[in-house]
Amino acid sequence: MRSDERWLVVGLGNPGPWFTGTRHNAGFLAVDRLAERYGAKFRLRKARYGAAEIEVDGRLVVLAKPQWFINLSGNPVVTALRTYGVPTERLVVVQDDLDFPFGVIRLKRGGGPGGHNGARSVGNALGTRDYTRLRFGIGRPPKGQTIGTFVMKEFSQSERTELPALLDRCADTVEALVTRGLGQAQTQLHSAGV
Question: Site Stabilizes the basic form of H active site to accept a proton: which residues (predicted)?
């Protein structure tokens, strides 16, 4: 393992069994899929985040799930970066995104939070927006439903059917980012038409 190249991949979500499977926890679901691939288990850290370590092509990749509510994700992310000695340029934050239809996945470095309070908390705590985000489209709420209600609901039956393949695509993208860099990971993701 090359200890000089460490990555931190943080899934944003809300802790607790009542939030499992909700749209706002797409980030948790994506890092769970990566952990499953490598047989890694999350362990709770005193700093209030769950962490699992995997090795991707000789690189240490720490998967983390903040155990504070999503809008307060920033401090646990900063703590994890410091604990594992990961530079901000190798931080990847996986989040749900209302601005993309369900199933659209985008990888981007920098940019604003786009109304996502968890991403805003991370940017504020870091003091920079210069980190990579993997955004998982969840679509917009139907007419008459508030955003708050929509993101806290579980994925629909049809969405749950598609979810495993989409989470695999997220995991593939993170692996490509770590091993081949941002440009090639974006090309791989976009060529898949997702």
Answer: 96
Task: For residue 68, report the phi and psi dihedrals to the nearest 5 degrees.
Answer: -95, 165
Query: Is there a binding annotation on residue 71?
Result: yes
Distance CA 27, CA 12 (A): 5
Its pTM surpasses 0.90: yes
The catalytic site residues sit at 24
Residues 6+ apart with CB under 8 A from 128: 88
14 annotated ligand binder:
no
- For residue 19, say whether it is annotated as part of any ligand binding site: yes
Residue 74's domain comprises: 2-191
**Residue 77 belongs to a domain with what CATH number?**
3.40.50.1470
